[in-house]
Every structure is written in C-alpha cells, then in structure tokens.
Amino acid sequence: MKLPTPRVTIALTAITVLVSLAVLLTGNGPWAGHVGGFIAARVGGATGSPGALPVWVTPLSATLLHGSAVHLMFNIVVLVYCGRSVELALGGARLFVLYVVSAYAAVVGQYLSGPGDPTPMIGASGAVSGLLAAHAVLYGDRPAYHGRLASQAVIQVLWLFAAWVGIQLLTGVAFHGSMAIGAHIGGFAAGLLLVKPLLRWRHRGAR
C-alpha cells in the first residue's frame, strides 16, 4: 500500500532549508537573528533592532533561521524523520498545528528560563522537539493510530528527549554555540500534551 505523501512535512522542510541557507550563504546571520529571532527581553519592553519583526511573529520566524549548516542539518533530519510519521498519524493540518504550537511553547519555555535575556534565539529545535515528543508517544510501543496510546511509551519518550538534548549539547560544545534548554523543554511538553487531543480530533473528523 502506498502511503500518503507528507506534504506539510515537505513544505516545512523546504521553506526552512531555503531561508536558512539564503541567510547563511549571504553572511546575514547576525542581522537576521536580531530581526527575526526571538528575544526574551523584547517581551518585557526592550526595543528591538531597526526593522525587527513584531515579537509575537518571531516564534515562527526564528524556526527559519539557523546559526550554522550543522545546526540546520540536525534539525532537518529530525523534522523529516519524525514529521513524516507524525503526519501519517495525525494528518497534515494537525501536524502543522502541532508544529506551530510547539514553536510558541518553545519561546515560552525560553522566556521563563531568562526573561531579560537580550540574545536572539533562533532555530527550529523547539518546534522539532514537539514533533519528537509526538513521534515517541505515537510509535513508542505500537502504531497508536490503530488503537490506544500506550503508557509503556513514557520511558522511551524520556530516553528520546534525553538523547535529543544530549546531541544538541554536544553540537553546541563542538561548534562553540549555545543551546536553548528552555525552548526544547517547552516544545517537547507541547508535543506530549497535544498529540492525544490531535489524534482524537482526526478520528472524530473521519467518522
């Protein structure tokens, strides 16, 4: 049986890669980070750079910006791997909702970890963390969209999150970068909380 094409996952991947590479190849990374990255201090009233996007837009624009090709590569690998499977289970519209909500949950987590931080947060890691959590719950024990979500998947969820954070930490150390722990936790929590309601939404709509 031919599986449906994961169109939303493909679209998210293509847009993220195109925008990130365009910024990286033109050397506009620092400028783009201050214009489109999420800056926690701006929520408290700090003035942004000239031309900066509205702070409420930056949770989404930040997902399209990456500090390096390696940063982009790690996020895209997880986006493609988890996104296509989650889209198969939830459908394209619900995958998009999960991705967007996880992006906003990520900046909430980042803000709570440092409300006055003036450093731009960029990268799709927070939104991708939501997909990773959803994938772990859906496929941790058996295909959840054929039955009930398995509580046995909790341990695998935690191990996957630990591995994801570990990889990000190692990447940050190796390439002298930093990792937004709060954003990863926020995005991951959103994925855990949303996957069951979104799954029920799809099944209810299929009746």
Can you walk through the features of this model?
The chain is mainly α. 69% of the residues lie in helices and 0% in strands. It has nine helices and no strands.
List keywords for this structure.
mainly alpha; 207 residues; Rhomboid-like fold; 9 helices
TL;DR of this structure?
The chain has 207 residues and is mainly alpha-helical. It has nine helices and no strands. It has helices at residues 7-25, 29-36, 40-43, 58-61, 69-90, 92-113, 125-139, 153-174, 181-206.
Element-by-element helix/strand order: HHHHHHHHH
β-sheet strand percentage: under 5%
The first-to-last residue Cα distance is 22 Å
User: Class by helix and strand content?
Assistant: mainly alpha
Please give the count of helices: 9
SSE diagram, text form:
Elements: H1 7-25, H2 29-36, H3 40-43, H4 58-61, H5 69-90, H6 92-113, H7 125-139, H8 153-174, H9 181-206
Helix pairs in contact: 1-5, 5-6, 5-7, 6-7, 6-9, 7-8, 7-9
